[in-house]
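Chain A, query sequence.
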Amino acid sequence: MRDLDQRLLSAMRDCGTNPRVAAAARALSWSGEHGALWLAGGLVAAAADRDRRGSWLRGTALVGAAHLTSMAVKRVVRRPRPQLPALEPLVRTAGRHSFPSSHATSAAAAAVAFGALRPAGRHLVPPLAAAVCVSRLVVGVHYPSDVAAGALLGSLTAALGAAWMRGPQPGGREERFPDG
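Chain A, predicted structure.
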C-alpha cells in the first residue's frame, strides 16, 4: 500500500510542475486551511438563508467538529508528511502529521452537510470539495490514503450529525427541505 501511495502522490505532485495547476492547487489548499472556506461559507449561508439559519449553523458546527476530530486523530496516528526526493511541497503546512488530511475531512463534511440543505449545495460544494482534496496531493503534502481517510471521516461525521443539523421542528418532526 505504501508503494502505491508513494507512486500516486508522485504522479499528482508532478501535475504541480505546471504553473497554472500549481497556482490553483496553492489557492485551494490555502482556502481550505483549518476548514476556513467551509466555515466561512456556512456562516455566509446562515446569514443569507433566514429560513434555514439554524440548520446552516449546525451544519457549520458539524464541519468544525469533523475538522477537530481529524486533528485529534493526527495526534494519535502521527504519520509524517510525505517527502518526495525530487520535488519540494508547494505549500507550508501548519503541522507535521498527515493522517488523516484535515482539509479532506472538512471538505467532505461540508459536501455532505451543506449538500443536504439546498440544491445549490448539492451541485456546487462536492466538486469544490473534491478539488480541495486533490489539491493536497498536487501540492505534495498528503498521501492519497490520507486524503481518502479524511474524506471518509468528514462524510461519516456529517452523515451521523444530519438529523441534528436539520433540527427538531414544532411537534418533534425533523425539518424537511424541499428542492429550491
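Residues 40 and 115 are 16 Å apart (CA to CA). Residues 169-173 have pLDDT under 50 and may be disordered.
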